Amino acid sequence: MSRIFDALKRAELLLGKRKATETGGVSTSGYTERRRSGRIHVHIPLFIYGRTPAGNPFYENAYTIVINGAGGLISITSNVRPGQRLMVTNEGNDQTQECVVVSVEQQRGRNRNVALKFPTPMPQFWRGLEIGKSGEP
Fold first, then answer.
1. What is the pLDDT of residues 89-123, one digit of tens each?
2. Which tens digit of pLDDT belongs to each residue from 28-53?
3. Fold for domain 34-124?
4. pTM score, two decimals?
5. What is the DSSP string of the chain?
């Protein structure tokens, strides 16, 4: 794994241990984590392409909000639906992977938060990323 990904993972584990110590090792929220891998909040530039529900091709630049080994949460403006397949390119390492839309949540304006999953867990898709790199000026 990349050094950056490893560092983020260690920081996340440390933060989790610190919170467990502060609460006596007991979760106060009653929430059980169902994810197979930990989540990392990071802004990674992506290139997304696919077809709208009407069948029209689209592409757009997007970015991640949260990632994990099984997929991620991204922000896009295109209209997509759960079950739809999209091609996602990580602009930090030029890897492309097909993903499936899991859920779509409308945000303010035209933005949508879209949860994606890989057909099989693929933490290597996020390797070699340059954290903080974006297409924004």
1. 999 889 999 999 999 998 888 889 999 999 988 88
2. 444 444 545 577 888 889 999 998 87
3. Thrombin, subunit H (2.40.10)
4. 0.66
5. --HHHHHHHHHHHHHHHHHHHHTTT--SS-PPP--SS--EE---EEEEEEE-TTS-EEEEEEEEEEEETTEEEEEE-S---TT-EEEEEETTTTEEEEEEEEEEEE-STT-EEEEEE-SS--GGGGTT--TT--S--
